[in-house]
């Protein structure tokens, strides 16, 4: 038993013996124990965090998700993000505990760091390193830009209003970082961890657009020994959950691979997996993209118009193929994440070399540009509740 003894499998876990999952990577695996994590999370008082956020001042409000509101703050000179659990629901309490325990023992450059927490009375708060560029969701699917030049560019180029387009190379770099974070969870953490909440809103971006996975409240210790899955109530976000998991409740490492495939398709297309604001046939990304995914000659039709054609066509094709592989219905034929990392690194080795990059695209090169304006995320319907339960 590794350090996750406190995360004993759920009582309803299916104990049927079956062949081991091919993603075990036992040799490469390393015991993740608190003594190798980069420091223990600090226990804060509610007063500490009230002061840090200016008493949860609206001016410091960053956004709101299923867990509760998030505020920017400062503790001992370090910028932090403070997430306050909305006081309704047992589920939130469980997620709080899992998040603290997971992030206390897990440590990787592509995982967000937990600075500390507060569990005083009824209050439950989480304190993270502050990620200055917010979520991938806000960059990929756009916010209304306050930059007039960018606005003109958007109009002139027929880019859907409100987008701050990420350039191709940045998208690929984000994909590599996300897959590396997932590879750490699947192949290095011992026992392996199933993330279960891969989605654009949970990919947070550093100043150079380096991505970090966040929100481990739904994470599960993966199957160990002869087991191939963990039986659990179906949780996650609509559209990102693997169909086999939704139907059977059997969670495997490959459930994360399906969600990664959805994320890759979102990076390619700039479309949300589900977007109620689009015409009916386009609301579900998989339904809309199916005719293009089935015909290699039509792969280019998947490319986000906001890329303005600025991508290497062969790399686009390769990224579409990786996404297709991850999205296969049968979990056992989906690739393991280590292979996805190799594929994505290969794509990253063929960057788009523009003669002239459109100035208003978001990339590390112009990351200081004023169009990178982030607005608080809206509360999205259907998020994370046990939608299928
Ligand atoms: N560590 C962080 N640094 C900066 N912004 C963050 C951080 N954590 C969360 N946020 C922002 O707070 C908002 C709400 O986050 P969250 O509660 O995780 O909900 P969701 O994942 O559903 O968006 C998001 O816009 C996210 O970008
Ligand atoms: Mg989140």
Describe the structure.
The chain has 389 residues and is of the alpha+beta class. The chain folds into 2 domains: 5-129, Phosphorylase Kinase, domain 1, CATH 3.30.200.20; 136-388, Orthogonal Bundle (Transferase(Phosphotransferase), domain 1). The chain is 30% helix and 12% strand. The strands form 4 sheets. It has a 6-stranded mixed β-sheet with strand order 1-5-6-4-3-2, with helices on both faces. A hairpin with a 2-residue loop joins strand 3 (68-75) and strand 4 (78-85). Helix 7 packs antiparallel against helix 9. It starts with 41 loop residues before the first strand and ends in a 41-residue tail after the last helix. The model is unreliable at 1-38, 143-163 and 368-389 (pLDDT under 50). Magnesium ion is lined by residues 65, 201-202, 214-215.
Global structural class: alpha+beta
* CATH fold name of the largest domain: Transferase(Phosphotransferase), domain 1
Distinct small molecules bound, one entry per kind: adenosine-5'-diphosphate, magnesium ion
Largest sheet, in brief, is: 6 strands, mixed
Q: From the alpha-carbon coordinates, what is the Rg to the nearest angstrom? A: 20 Å
Binding site for ATP: 83
Subcellular location: Cell membrane
Enzyme class: transferase
Biased composition (Polar residues): 359-374
